[in-house]
Amino acid sequence: MSAKTLGNKIISGPHVGAPLQTYQIMRQVVWALLPACGVGVFLFGWPALYLLGVTVASALLVEAACLKLRGLPVLPTLNDGSALVTGLLTAMTLPPWAPWWIGVTGSAIAIALGKQVYGGLGQNLFNPAMLARVALLISFPIEMTRWTNIEPLFTGPGLAESWRITFGGQEISDAMTGATTLGLVKTGFSLNQTLPNLLADHSNWLSFLGWERGSLGETSSLVLFITGIGLWRKNIIQWHAPGSLLGTVFILALIGHLLNPGRYLDPWTHLNSGALILIAFFIATDYVTSPNTPLGQMIFGAGCGVLIYIIRAWGGYPEGSGFAILLMNAVTPLIDHYIKPRIYGRYRNGKPLDISH
Predict the structure, then answer these.
(1) Which residues have a Cβ under 8 Å from the Cβ of 132 and sit 6 or more positions away?
(2) What would the pLDDT profile of 240-249 be if each residue is shown by its tens digit?
């Protein structure tokens, strides 16, 4: 079987690539997430490890239960790794010392309401992990905004005390908690404090390495950036959505900071705070809930960046990543409708090629 050509250009034929299987893609994503999870567990100790295990196990169990209720085989779907990835991502959006039921509830929302209710993998409109994050934040604001200080694995609470924190309902003292950088700025502005005073003790470099309060997905921007680039180099993700998202936030932050440095954070702090790097490389690149074309992905990423900056600068929440992703997920079908890939065998202007000779 030969291909038809026009000059030296192949315009049709059997040249179909063999893409990676779903389980192979998910396996690569899991390996890319594990270093950041490891950093989070090291920084926040055994409670973070317990919560991570609970959330992942709950995601797998809820997935199995939903498949059973739908009369579908369990193991083939569980083996594709999508529930494992959802569990990891959901855990990375939670406060490390959150109680166990937060992890279970988050997994149930992500898998049952964010994925299976639409028909399973490939059918969902919204990113499951972000849906769980936003639902938990609205429903349980106290538990979802209790950020603990850095308590490294081997110097923080021991195994028994950590068990009581995660599973026993042990109260966390106020002395062991504090605000994230974005939360500190948001609260400070409401008290008419100036930006230099609010960030007097903040170190962007320590934050870049992960030494800052936050969720497991707000730990080391360096590790998340490196593993995200690794996924791009392996062609698991494309650069269009992460590049446009980070670039948009950078440009808007630069403009705001130049106009009023006492009111608006600098670009580096914006890029290095919250879950922005996690969102850019691991959420905005979701195959199912983001556009199909490179241009569509750039529009999607830019839209996320605009919404994140608006919410951070003027919204009621310190971090706007989850809301931004869900809003742009809802716009994805519209983007795909108007921005379609080029039809094979045609010029870019849509005129058919003459291949009669």
Answers:
(1) 90, 93, 106, 107, 109, 110, 114
(2) 999 999 999 9
